[in-house]
Amino acid sequence: MDIMVKNEKLKTWIKEVADMCRPDAIHICDGSKKEYDGMMAMLIASGSAIALSKRPNSYLFRSDPSDVARVEDRTYISTTSKDEAGPTNNWIDPASLKATMKNLYNGCMKGRTMYVIPFSMGPIGSPIAKIGVEISDSPYVVVNMHIMTRVSSKVLELLGADGDFIPCLHSIGAPLEKGRKDVQWPCAPIESKYISHFPEENLIWSYGSGYGGNALLGKKCLALRIASAMARRESWMAEHMLILRLTNPEGRQYHIAAAFPSACGKTNLAMMKPSLEGWKCECIGDDIAWMKIGPDGRLYAINPENGFFGVGPGTSYSTNAMAMDTIKENTIFTNCALTDDGDIWWEGMTDDLPSHLIDWKGRDWTPSEKAEAAHPNARFTAAAAQCPVICKDWENPAGVPIDIFIFGGRRGSVVPLVYESLSWEHGVFLGATAASETTSANIGAVGNLRRDPFAMKPFCGYNMGDYFGHWLAMGEKLGGKAPRIFYVNWFRKNQDGKFLWPGFSENSRVLKWMCERVDGRAGADESPIGLLPKRGDLDLSGLDIARDDFEELMKVDSAEWHAEIPDIEAHFSLFGGRLPDSLKDQLTALKKRLG
Questions:
Q1: CATH number given to 309-384
Q2: DSSP string, 167-216
Q3: Residue 264 designated active-site
Q4: Of 50, 64, 346, 366, which sits with the fewest C-beta atoms within 10 Å of its C-beta?
Q5: pLDDT tens digit sequence for 230-277
Q6: 8-30+68-234, what's its fold?
Q7: Who contacts 524 (Cβ-Cβ below 8 Å, separation ≥6)?
Q8: pLDDT tens per residue across span 111-140
Q9: Catalytic residue among 264, 283, 336, 515
């Protein structure tokens, strides 16, 4: 250990964790292909992984049925003051939470190997990147972190003797007694699961779950919950946003960052194939954006992740061909169904149902089964570099300059296809009041309206009222170089319940109008809610949309918007004195414009 690890803080921390968790062995990860292949061979031999004969270097895992998704009700923001965590987070006092978790960690790695995973979020050495070290007793976590982050011995070199890092401690919470056979997916019962964040110390402790963002601590835990708190202190931004580059036929490049709640087409937009001739879309990231103000005063963004941890069900060649091409090889699949010829399958992948599968629980499945073959939250883990439309600058250490921010949600009525904010402050108001009708992907009854500010409600690591204030402060710093802000709704329906907008590749038409607004080449009409495209400015060439349908798609009904006001007021009331006055003023102004 001492040969590879020169960092004094890290050496001390490794010893502290080893003394508390008492593993049988310690392995310092180097991020090499040899390490990955060896880990996979071990996982296949143990029965935890299944090699897929139809996809080169690809593997299927099946989790315990109790451990299939992020567990929001077991996720905590632990700050000295409850008010600092705010009304949207679960809070426990740090001393109390640490005492509980230390008790759980005591001897929790007996019979297992403790893996020390040094990783960089963002290109190694980038001025926007951060270094983390995850300690885990899960080899599944190791192989996924290899793909999702930049695991490398170079990270240890960059740390040197006194460099700083974010400590991320994880255990599946399943010590293995000597001579006892391990289970396929070891984890702790739900009541023992804790995903805990200590933003005042830049510290993450996770216990009991081996799945996704509960265990891959570089993802939501570090990249959003801890990073958002760091970003406020250090005057940058950590956001739940895709990043894409759009290039027009003349070769002009635009960079767009967009925040949507779940089930609103985020990954599809990040990998969009424009329907408009001569326009090109390239993916920089599908989930998280870290942004800092550059020397020229503009906002520059990187994707801090190294891979995609995408939802499988619903992904197909008709909905997202680029994602399907990305996962042809070198991919980890979790909780997907297994075909008889050694491939994976999930609902929505093909029009025809296979006649027989092994489902995500390892049982025989036929189309007559009521249960789904793949879990609705089944995932694929694949390197971003494999995406056919990955941007050549996606790993540029300096990042890319953001021209446009987009917020949005899934609304069957009320909200038009697209509108632009009247100002930065108004744009922050749009982000702060973003709402979506719940689907099966959300918790709660289907169809309920759920406010999800900036798509950050589950991920903001401090009081969200202060988070709104941070957005306003960043706008003041950026001044005239701030990105333009837009709001979209791809999901408006007619009276028969049919979607009025085709979506997917046709969304490029909406992005084109935004780019032309940035360049001053497209007009806009002022409405009570914001700036709408002028008639004829939205390129609908070759698109078969009836005039009445388009008018319904763009309609702003003052009575419907008046009906939204009480819900916005109730939402804002959550934040009490932490709600910035500027947002109160924006709400007053909206009421006045609605008349």
A1: 2.170.8.10
A2: EEEEE-S----TTPPPPSS----GGG-EEEEEGGGTEEEEES--SHHHH-
A3: yes
A4: 366
A5: 999 999 999 999 999 999 999 999 999 999 988 788 999 999 999 999
A6: Phosphoenolpyruvate Carboxykinase; domain 1 (3.40.449)
A7: 420, 517, 531, 532, 533, 534, 537
A8: 999 999 999 999 999 999 999 999 999 999
A9: 264
